[in-house]
Design brief:
alpha+beta, elongated, 8 strands, 3 domains, 252 residues
Amino acid sequence: MIAWREKARAFAIHFLVTLAFSASAAALVFLIWFPDPFARMLGGTRLFEILVMCDLGLGPLSSFIVYNSKKSRRALVFDYTIIGIVQLGAFLYGLHSVASIRPAYIVCVGDRIEVVSAAEIDDADLAEAADDYRRRPAWGPRLVGIREPQDPKEREKAMFAALAGKDYAVLPKYYAPYEQTLPEIKARSKPVSELEKHHPEAKELIASAAAQLRIPLEKLTWLPVKHRDGFWTVLLDRDTERPVDWLPVDPY
């Protein structure tokens, strides 16, 4: 006779343990790797939801199937060791997949901002970078600028790299402190009135952002944001030229 109550209890305990691990992972993913709004921008929320749903189903359901109080202690330990290895392996693989699309660098490239995910940067290109940029940031995206090469040969090399699909944004050897690009940003950023003129749907979003930030509209500027799935818009504080809000508006 099947002891349904015992199986349900085993399922519930395993479910709660898995839920606790998932909550800890969620804190890592949404508070550190994908601070708002990058989870929405890059699809981190959707991928993490799939990971959690699979994990919450895989482990507890396995417990429901294999648990039997009549089994020996040795048999139960063996069963749960196998379940734990499989579940942990699947969880770590899923978490690695989420980590690979996390925003690593937010790069100011001339007239736009590019959000570069960890997977878009090759290890070989990291090795050529200055010491400050030889690693993918592990604790949230890092805001940087671009130092264009002055040497003609280096410029030509960068041009051919861009033709091959690798522009400055994914080549850390050209990264520089964001502060060094402030004059260029100030020259290229545009008033929000221009964005509202061509994209009326952005007007309400801009007004809401200005109210929350307590920054007058005339002190807000914007630049396009390129990411792996399309385009958004970033609002900048005219006084500091640093990002203050991100809007799901394709300015093109």
